[in-house]
Amino acid sequence: MTEQSFEGWMKSIQVEMEVALVKLLPSVTQKPARLHEAMHYAVLDGGKRVRPLLVHAAGALFDADVAELARAAAAVEMIHAYSLVHDDMPCMDDDALRRGKPTVHVKYDEACALLVGDALQAQAFEILAEGGLDAARQLAMLRLLAKASGSFGMCGGQAIDLASVGLTLSLQELEQMHTLKTGALLRVSVLLGALAGKALSENEIAALDQYSSAIGLAFQVVDDVLDATADSATLGKTAGKDAADNKPTYVSILGLEQSQALAEKLRTDAYRALEQFGDKARRLRELADLIVQRKA
Amino acid sequence: MTEQSFEGWMKSIQVEMEVALVKLLPSVTQKPARLHEAMHYAVLDGGKRVRPLLVHAAGALFDADVAELARAAAAVEMIHAYSLVHDDMPCMDDDALRRGKPTVHVKYDEACALLVGDALQAQAFEILAEGGLDAARQLAMLRLLAKASGSFGMCGGQAIDLASVGLTLSLQELEQMHTLKTGALLRVSVLLGALAGKALSENEIAALDQYSSAIGLAFQVVDDVLDATADSATLGKTAGKDAADNKPTYVSILGLEQSQALAEKLRTDAYRALEQFGDKARRLRELADLIVQRKA
Fold first, then answer.
1. Which residue of A122, A134, B55, B256 is surrounded by the most CB atoms within 10 Å?
2. Strand (E) positions, B23-164?
3. How far apart are CA B255 and CA B233, in angstroms?
4. From the candidates B27, B89, B115, which should be mutated to test the interface with A, based on the most A CB atoms within 10 A?
5. ∠ at Cα B129 (B123, B135), nearest 5°?
6. Could you give the percent of chain B with pLDDT greater than 90?
7. pLDDT of B169 higher than 90
8. Nearest residue on chain B to A39, alpha-carbon basis
């Protein structure tokens, strides 16, 4: 495994993930078929699968079972996919384009998009509850995923984000918002992957949290940089939307150059957090590189 | 406990439930405060708490720990509450009144209502994952709740309901829809309550499922009867809405008299299913009575 190039590793995880997601989604041959079709539409053929990659990369730290990693990764990815479906709806960000395709409420309808998100969230918890690890560890993973998804995690971050449109946020407030909105799910990806390998010591959790914080913020800083500099075709979503919506971003607060420097600093922080894990952390380091260097 | 009147028992569960829900919801003193306030608004001071009553009544079959029952009941009730918040939204049933109060999207806004529902679902799974039963049983409860909530349960039923507006459903199709939309959550209430007491035999599960099917359908039949006969003030929601929306109902298919006779027959079925449990099933029998005889 460690001989494989990062590109090759990433591609193989992405392909395996697609297979796992199809298997773990409700079949489109079962009723209600339109809902199940829309769930597939929302989840499959989607993006770089950063969260599943993090689950697998963290699982490599402790040689976790690959099938259990695929299950945890699918659960996190379904939470992520549901949040995108709901965030794109007219009452939230009102976005018509996602990953170069019409968003779910455009392709289907709003009621369907609402239900797709709701059903995907339930499906995520069901999948994780059906894992084959010892019950206590499986329960710990469920607790972490639920907390990362709820009002002290992703949903809370989205609420703060909505409330901050048109406001001037401080850098600290912006960071808090993203720590919840995006960071919580990235963090839980790392933790679930590691937990699938073994029960974690406090020291290990602290190191993984440092890594997650660094890449979580880097992810957002780079997002803001790309939103300000890339075009819609490259991004696969509407570019320049944050500025148009008058949303505070790292670029609007720090400027472009300082934002890029911050992303580089965060990559260094991420590397430092992984030192104790040695060569087994290779994929996590490479993912930090990916997050900072990505062009879309 | 068994000396207590049904009214007294019900009242005490309802009061205890309110306390448990406040304790198990995120505090409104914590950020994001508006989201947390809206979550409280959606869940507290809400209705008869039929599902929590079922959890406690089923728990009495096997002398389950009351704190564990309260936790399971709160989890089910949060799923129920989130589904009401989302169902009331403009893109679904577009209802402005719920339990005599403005619905969440009217009182707050649509984006907030969407997030309230999403966060409540996560909260439900978090609460249940934090229970104190042995991990294997707790996991089994989580699997049941997730399945009952998702596309083969409540969300699936809602999808079929939306797709059936303006269509002529057969009695069997109508039953299938309600079995998912309302029945799945009532069934899981009974199963979680019983499971909080002990691991269940197949025979016990079959009996409880018969009971749940009967009261689940009775619940819907009576809902349809009330929607056709009661006024909005008594119901605490907009009466006559199904007819106005051209939705198929038991009353529109069977007529009023036959619908009332069906509800009575279902009560008898529910009683019969409980025979093996003897006196310990007293509260479950009384809840079947409540469901059939309720006026709102």
1. B55
2. 97-98, 101-102
3. 24
4. B115
5. 175
6. 84
7. no
8. B151
Residue A271: both structure tokens together: 């590397």
User: With an 8 Å Cβ cutoff, are B139 and A129 in contact?
Assistant: yes
CA triple B158-B163-B164, angle to 5 deg: 95
Q: CA of B279 to nearest chain A CA: how many angstroms apart? A: 34
Model pLDDT for residues A146-187, shown as the tens digit of each residue: 999 999 999 999 999 999 887 888 889 889 999 999 999 999
Residue of A258, A274, A152 lying closest to A213 (CA atoms): A274
For A33-56, the DSSP string reads HHHHHHHHHHHSS-S--HHHHHHH
Domains annotated on chain A, with CATH: 6-293 (1.10.600.10)
- Chain B residues whose CB is inside 8 A of the A119 CB are 150-151, 155-156
Element (H or E) spanning A97, and its range?
Answer: strand A97-98
The strand ranges marked E within B225-265 are none
Give the type of residue at B269: D
Query: CA angle A71-A72-A73, nearest 5°?
Result: 90
pLDDT of residue B236: 65
> Does the ipTM exceed 0.85?
yes
Distance CA A153, CA A180 (A): 5
Distance CA B192, CA B148 (A): 11
pLDDT tens, B37-80? 999 999 999 889 999 999 999 999 999 999 999 999 999 999 99
> What are the φ and ψ backbone dihedral angles of B150, each rounded to 5 degrees?
-90, -150
A33-44: pLDDT as tens digits: 999 999 999 999
Q: What is the pLDDT of residue A3?
A: 75
Tens of pLDDT, residues B108-127: 999 999 999 999 999 999 99
